[in-house]
Amino acid sequence: MRRELFKYTVRSLQFGILVFLIVAAIYVSIGRIVLSLSDVYRDDLVYWLEERFDVDLKIASINGHWDYFDPEIVLNGVLLGESTSFDHVTFQIGILNSLIERTVVITSIDLRGLKIFLEERSPGKWNIDGFPDSSKFFDPELLLSSLPYLSTAWIDQLEVKLKGIRNDYILSTQDLILQSANNGVRRVSAPLQIRSKDTKFKASITLLGNYSGSQKKKDFEGDFYVDITGTGLEHASYLTEINRRFANISIDSQFWISLNREDKGIVSSIDIEASLLGSDAEKLAVAGDFALDLKVSEDQFKISGNEINIEVDDKAFIIKDLHGALSSNLSQVGFMIPVLDLGQLSSSLLNLGSRVASKKILKAIESISPAGSLRETFVYLDAEKPKSEYQLVSLLDSAEFGSYLGFPKMRNLSGLISMNSDRGFVDIDNEDFYLNFKSHFNEVWPFDAVRGRMLYQNDAEVLRISSGLVEFSHEGLKAFGKVKLNLPRDEGDHTWALLMSVHESKLLESNRYLPNTLSPRLLSWLDAAVIAGEVEESGLLFHGALSKNSPKINKIFESYFRLRDVDLRYHPEWPELSDLNALFYINNAGVFSNNGNAKIHDSNLENAKVNIRIPYGKEAKNFVLSADIKGSLFDGVRVLNETPIADKIMNVSKHWSGTGKLWGTVKLEIPLVPLEDDEIYTDVSISLADNDFSFADQNITIEKINGNFRYESYSGLNSSRFTGNLFGEEIFGSITTELRNQSEEVLVDMEGTIDVIDLYEWSGQPILSRFKGESTYSASLHIPFGNNTEGSYLEATSNLSGIEINLPAPFGKNETTERTLFYREEFLETGSKLNFSLGELSASLLTDNALVTGGRLHVGPTENSEVSYDSLVVTGILEQADYEDWHQFFLDMENISDQSLKSMFRDNSQLISLDIDCLNLYSLPLFGIKANVKRLSGAWSAFLVNEDLSGEIIIPDDGEASVVVNLDRLRFPRAGGATNPLGNLLPQELAGTKFTIKELFYGDEEFGRWSFELRPDETGLSLIDLKGRVKGVSLTEGSRIDWTYDKQSASSFEGNIWIEDLGIALEKWGYASSVEGSNFNLSASLVWDGSPAAIDMAVAEGQIKLLNGKGRFVQADPGAALKLLGVFDFAQIGRRLSFDFSDVVQKGWSFHGIQGSLDYKKGKMSILEPIVIEGSSSTFKLAGSVDLNTRELDNDMIVTLLVSRNLPWYAAYSAIATGPLAGLGVLLAQKILKSQINQASSAKYTVSGTIESPKIELHSLFNNSLGTRTSPIQ
């Protein structure tokens, strides 16, 4: 574009100068013509002119004379061909000067009526009409040779007709005068007018000036003024071959020309206005103001421009202080522009549009959008060379160029430009430079400094751009590069090559050197993956096609990066690679690296290989890393827990840890952009030697592990064999992964020997405290993964040979007995699901935080019904169970367990249903017991049923509340010998109980109903509010039993006994009913050693009081196998006393009161207060003792009878007294003299013998006193 503008400027200058030269040539030609018409030389002149112009010549007359030795010739009526003529010409030839100059020199000329007709036979080619194309219109050399000697020249009425292809023109002048003064100074005045035939174009040129000397010699000097004005100049454009793209061209210019021996110059002021035409007939206003100085030396013109102001569509382009030179023949020009604004220049050219440049060039200018400035710009143009060579040298200052055709965008570019039509260079040496290969790189390349040379070469077919070695630096980065571009005419064939070497740079800044022709997915991954690192050195090579439409295979990128201390986050779910040192290769096919080293956590990766392949026409997919690994098992566990492998193995390794070293290989294929269906391919093989591995959540540590392990995405985790120590015993194992259609599973098999003590200490399971010994086992850990994944689970089996089990029957065994144990535990999020079997014991349980929340525990044959885990169900059949053993077992478990078995069953059990063949309950065997336990609100309810027992036991959750026992029936078996079924109990440990028994049996003998409340305390317990009704005998409210324990048990009874019907009670207790009565009340206070159940009258001690009662003594009927209490057989007593008891026997002896107290000591009763039985007719008093052990009696009995016929003295008295008055007197005497009469009517007996056969003997009469017993009967 600059070249076109320069050509336009030069041709404008040529146009002005050419007009001047044409006028001068006309003058010279006319002079020659005049001279040739001299009569003296007429024939020769006509012949010469005809030969010269190849046209016919007619001359009306030739006259000539000599002025001195110079001839003066006058020609009239001259006609050259049919297009050139003049009326008159007079010219003088200076002979001497001609001889000196060796050519004809005219010293004066007078020309009138000159007419010339010129025709444009081809664009820009003018010829005199009628003249051959090869002929010349005039000889400039003749004019130039004569001008120094020309003293007078006058041209009057000059008219030149120009017939152009597009238009016709007329050039005319009046009074063109050249006159020489006496001092050798010549004055010239040349007014010229030119116009088109249609008058659209009009112009005038006025030349005024003085000069002296010869223009061929150094003595030539002069001063000239030229004024050129005109309108419609676009119609005259053919005259000077100016590019015809303007309309409405007008000019108003003045030239001041000064020529002397030392200096020759032109001062000009030129104003031009025009309209620039576009291809669509659009007109663009342009204008220019030129203030130029032109100095002429011997062979050139020196040009200086104070200011050149060109306006295009109101946008100005200004050039100040222009300096230049123009050769004398106008073919060579050179000039210097101090400052040239690139933005103004490009904006002006874009405004001019296709009028001054092709669309391709305009597109380039628009894309480049140059900014900045050119300083000290030197331009040289040589039009004489075949290709019109030019040279431009300039200082580029802070320039900015946009990208174009693959060439980078450059900002803040400074340097030296040197260019010509086919080659050039730019020497760059500046700071803060920016490159942006926008079509190939996404980021700008900043540089603190750039030094180097860019070259270009342009021939007819290809523009070639290249560079020498260019040096770059940026914040410690050192880079060197070369570039080469080949730009033929066809853009599709544009190619380029860029070679660059970078030293010591930050890896985070190196992404900008990766072309966007690489896979976008790869670039995005690199941008996110690189965290930190250094680039020791790198090399980049880009070559191939520039066109965006070219296939990527034609755009080649090669690079290498020697990296140091790189941190790489290659996947967000995998641990970073740190301290990576490697040599990486990056090209269109991908990213490659060999023999690198890095770290994952604290483990070392050696011989690391990285591979990211980019299939042709596709995106990069995977990051592939393979390496040898040496590190710690701790890091290996971290990889399991902190990578997607954790999900694969169901996070079972969450609480694992390990110590010791590992080594092996690792290979990872990780998607650059993780998608939902993409999986990370993993292949890790490691070897362990004497490592320790801990499972924190199971509190297990496997020591001294040896073996090879491999995890591979498609085959899973595998180990053909590994060994180790578990709980101090050697184990052997293997790991396999089973891949099935619906699910996948990792299987860890182990076998070994274990000591139950170690298992108990590890698990803390209280039940294992009852196991002792060691045995072999085999176990399998199943870890499902993949789709439709269930929980992981552990299965273990053992025959328990060598293990003693100390459990209540029937679950215990000795160490030699084998019993198969199967155990399965499925691990859930907060608990587990357990299935196990031990002999006939099986369970399916659900746990949560170590507590059983539901399932089934079964004893006996396998139960096939479905298990519900909403609650705990216990079922089964037991051959035998001892309550005391199981109670003690649960107590032991509670003492050593952190968890309460009671609370576990309370919160989760729904039903406990057991059939027990023999339940031993406190030495009471219960056969065929059925136990059903269910949950109530706030309590447990147990229903126990068998032949001897039926009832409900309610155990409240509140430990302070009493247990409630409601039995419908309880039968104690009759057994010989003294027993103490509660002897092994500690009363302090019993629970508070409210006890009710509707039917109590001892053997088949019924013992009525009972109720009491059991209250334990720190010394023992008490049975308060004791009530009972046994065979007509009742314990009344307020009775109690106290049981204390201090190394030995002791019990006591304090209470009242009520007998509603004594006769019935005696019969129920197996005695003949010799006494009948009701409402008998007794109080007793007894103590004995042992528990309350150990009561035995043979060892009990205490006191018994007879409080009340009424009834009668009757004849006892010893039938029905009833025992007879002889001491109460009044018939026998009567016979012994020789009384007549017939009335007593017939009617019975009634009494209305009974009182007395006894001291009881180990089967011996001593009467403390005589037992007094009062009747309406007699009174009995009894004292002494009874030995229940020997059944012997030792008593005194006083019998007091009323005065009656039964007494001996009553019979004598009856004989004396007769009549009613006698009876009345006796009665009154009895009442008044009661004690005397009682004494007189009493008899004292001694009673001995046995209870069954008492021996009664009369001791004395009329004696109602009993002997005092000072001590109990021994």
Automatic annotation (TrEMBL):
Keyword field contains Aminoacyl-tRNA synthetase: no
InterPro entries in the record: YhdP, YhdP_central
Entry keyword annotation includes Transmembrane: yes
The protein's name in its UniProt record: YhdP central domain-containing protein
Protein species of origin: OM182 bacterium
Transmembrane annotation, as ranges: 12-35, 1207-1229
Keywords for the protein's UniProt record, in alphabetical order: Membrane, Transmembrane, Transmembrane helix
Pfam families according to UniProt: YhdP
Domain YhdP central: 13-1256
UniProt lineage: Bacteria, Pseudomonadati, Pseudomonadota, Gammaproteobacteria, OMG group
